[in-house]
Amino acid sequence: MATKSKMAAGTSKTAAQHVDLDLTFVASNDEQPRGQGVCPNLKEIGVGVLARITTDPTGKKALKDEEVKPCLWEQLLSNNEEARIAGLVLVKDNEPDLWKFALDLYEFGQAHAIGVRPAFNEKGEDTGKWNIIYGMRRALSKAIIWAGCKVSEDDQKEKLGLGKPVFGEGEAKPTVRCVLVDWITDPQQLMLLALTENTSRKDQTPVDEAKHYAALKKLGMNLQQVAEVTGEDYQTVRNRLQILKLDQKDQDKIHEGKLSWTRAIKKLAGQEGDGKTAPVAGNNTEGGRRRMPTIKQVEPIYLATEKPEDMPQDEWALVTEDVRKWIAFHAGFEYLTRKQLKEKKAQDERAALIAEQARKAAAGQEEAAAAK
To answer: Where are the alpha helices (DSSP H) in 109-222?
Structure first.
């Protein structure tokens, strides 16, 4: 992956903006509050996704070494065949939605790249590995596909319990197509990017949203600022954050669709003794939340060199150069700074004026010639 003038470890170019990332170079997904939510059922049996779970469900008591289970990532990408098969069985038996998603990805291919940036240690040093900003489920599915393609047809039937083999010949290395997003350095904007990508998912749950909002609050935003940058209604943000006050069992039930989050919040309010809860405006309704703008809607914002008269100042302040880069990248625009854009507009206007003058001069000459 190109950062400045050199390729980074674990990547190879496939297109102008995309590269293939070796999955063994993935270190974390710190900017995704969804985290273990990709595999909620595995968490219940003590299996982590990218890292081993070393504490009991309360998070207060450390497990003994023999009680700690290998994480899913290390099993799927292992050089040991039995470990890979064990990882596949874990997904197939415990995470049916992820299993189906991986099979669909295998059949139809990866349509969208995931977003990554360099992973740094506590000293701020580049580790040579990568942190997933968005697209963890796609990356995990590619690991499942790679592991599945390593299993023989007979073992797919016998050890994976499949009626017929579903995996064929695969890639030599476990890779996923990705795009580098290290041009975003502001933690708030980085979190916003992850949020924007994940909120487009159909399976985004209220718990996922609550964790995203909490992460933005942790970065120093107040509720109004969280609402503004995410395009949500203030009350929706406030209500979602109430979910994180519930015990883990209720959060898991909401995440799995087994419990209404509004009912759980009312129950929580009753336990707190006031018998009241905040109104639930914006409960996934069109009237209670703002929707992400279309390319047609963001284009004039990107092209504006001065604040539009109909745009509030606090909203204009959010349209930083990093945000404009993000808009240009996803909309397919040529990225120009506002200064460059002004210069280009001036050049275009001058060129248009010269062309008009030339057109008039030519027309005058034709008229003069016709008069003769």
So the answer is: 136-149, 153-158, 187-199, 206-218
Measure Cα distances from 247 to 32, 57, 271 in Å. 21, 12, 12
- Tokens standing for 37? 């939510």
pTM: 0.56
Residue 317 burial by CB count (10 A; 0-12/13-18/19+): exposed, middle or buried? Answer: exposed
- Helix ranges (H only) for 200-288 are 206-218, 223-230, 234-242, 248-255, 261-271
CA 294 distance to own-chain centroid: 18
**Three-state DSSP class for 62?**
strand
- Interval 216-273: pLDDT, tens: 787 777 888 777 767 677 888 888 899 998 888 888 888 777 888 888 888 777 665 4
87-108 burial code (b ≥16 CB/10 A, e <16):
bbebbbebbeebbebbbebbee
Reported as half-sphere exposure (CB side, CA atoms, 13 A), residue 342 has a value of: 5
Look at the chain and count its residues. 372
44-74 exposure pattern, b = at least 16 Cβ within 10 A, e = fewer? eebbbbbeebeeeeeeeeeeeeeeebebbbb
Q: Provide the token pair at 186.
A: 């502001």
Task: Show the domains of the chain with their CATH numbers.
Answer: 2-183 (no CATH), 185-292 (1.10.10.2830)
- Rounded CA-CA distance 138/178 in Å is 10
pLDDT in tens, 342-358: 888 888 888 888 877 87
Q: In which element (H, E) is residue 12 found?
A: strand 11-13
| Helix/strand/coil percent split, the chain, to 5 | 50, 10, 40
Residue with tokens 């006031």: 274
